[in-house]
Amino acid sequence: MRYFECKAAMKKELKTRSDAWSDVCNEVGNICQEYCDRNEDRFSMFVTSLRCKNCTFIIGGNGSDKAFSSECEAIWKSFGINGNIESITEISAEKVLRDIRNCRDVDKPDDIDDLMKVDRLRYMALDEHIVEPDKLPDLADYADFRSMPELREEAKRIDACTCDSFMGHPVHYLFEENNTESMRKTAYILVGKLMKANRLVSGRTAFISEKMILDSRGDIIDAIYANLKGGTVIASVNTARSDGEYADASEEVIKDICKHARKYRNDILTIFHISHNDRMAENTIASYVKDDLMLVRLRETAVGRAECADYLGKLAAEKDIHNIGDMLDKLDPEVDTYYISELDNIFEDYYAEYLRNKLYPAYLGCEKLEAKRTEAETDGKAASELAEMIGLTSVKDVINRSVNFFKLQQVYKERDIVMDNPARSMIFTGNPGTAKTTVARLTSKIFRDNGLLENGRLIEVGRADLVGQYVGWTAPTIKKAFKKAKGSILFIDEAYSLVDDRNGSFGDEAINTIVQEMENHRDDTIVIFAGYPKEMGQFLEKNPGLRSRIAFHVDFPDYSESELMDILKLMAKNKNLKLSKKAAEKAQEIFREAVKLHDFGNGRFVRNLLENATMGMAQRLAKKNLNKLTDKQLTTLEADDFVMPVMTTKKEKNDHRIGF
Predict the structure, then answer these.
(1) pTM of the predicted protein model
(2) Which phi and psi (to 5°) does residue 200 adopt?
(3) CA 641 – CA 657 distance, rounded (Å)
(4) What is the predicted pLDDT for the residue at 474?
């Protein structure tokens, strides 16, 4: 489908809001409706503006530039308005949609969005460009400039195979480049060359990426291909992926694009884009295009330091910069070769500094806006809360390292640097009361604050929430939990309880489904498995496929005697209570004995001890005249208020609640 905007100038001004203007608008509206009814299978049109001395209308259909020009002349003549056509310009579907929404002067034909074939694109994120061949550089010269010998060879082949009219696409293309924007510019120049050689009908190009496809409402791949006859689809599938047990979203996207590229191979040009050395994406494309598409590979070649200096010098000369010494200093002395796209990034960074420091020195004293860092070296309030928690030194370190690690993965993806797509899920192991749930809640917020998760909620579930009562219930229940946790953390409490001793049971179905959903949602959902150390070890041993999907193991040690004391003081402070000197000594003795016992409760033990001490204080004070007591007496805990709970050193069945 092609769209053209036709602008005409009237010789006599038509005043808006006048009776004459209304009559002309009504007449033109009827003509538009009749035209669409008569030409439904070939062309459709509507008027976007009719006022003063200007008239603009849009025509959609399929055909050559000459056919559209002839049709525009016929439409303008049918309006019976004295004037001349000034311009006929090809436009994008995005502009058609916008003008359909905004036109007010003339009534639109019935179902114009359906007639224009844009109804399915209405709620999709479109990224279109109209290539104008006459405004682009020569492809062969540009190939030399970009150090792309394969592109130069393709320019020669295009020159050698000219046709009088478009006959179809003998080949399609595979670009291998890290910089998406420079790849798109090169692709547009290639499209322009093909248009001049009658190898393309239209200059319309649509760019689609994996993220656009996954974020879009509806089947954007099918909708774009169905709408773009005569044009070009640039499909960027340069996303690092893993050798997962289950097909991930990236492979499904590539499979769907290849299916449509094969279906429309004679009507629509497909240009695939992958990153340097992304052999997995390349092999996936090859396996799905089969023998239906011949793909011509187009790559940058790395250039030596002399060529680097020559290229950067040319970029600098375009900006009237004659000394490139500072720019060359930015090259790594240990790196002998660079890709041109990497040099583009170096120049852009240098030029940004050059503008501030050389051309506009008045801005030298301005401070950069920088994110304030907490002691935990991560952004946000939640990171500060985690840093302020008592103890948990090793836990804090692992959480901070995980944030920095995943931030680096984001940079790789933004720079189109191909790396293995790492797992992001975690396992928390520790005894009761070691703050596993509390840290999990803070982790979800920390990941959100640092742009690693969209929502940053903590969705807490256990076996009862995941394992169905009957056959066939478990998988849908788990999928529903992952859907609820999208953009957040799914916290699976007592994860080991999912697996019982019977193979093929509901628990096994639950684990298999969880592993599959972890793979399907690895980019938008993090799973944290939590439980006791020994049981969690057995849990991972029973399902080795799960172990490979765990990025970080966070061990929560029991609190020490001094840490328990610090927790008690903090809890008391939060309740506006204080401990007398003897009360603190009594509590210290209790903690000294408690840490010797198995599963003493950690933070939960402290909370229970304080609550019991508060009730002991109430009993003690009740024997006195409360009205005569000072505020200090009313808020100070004494030694007699603290009583060592009855505990045992025998290992008993754990209380499986976690956190405190």
Answers:
(1) 0.59
(2) -140, 145
(3) 27
(4) 79
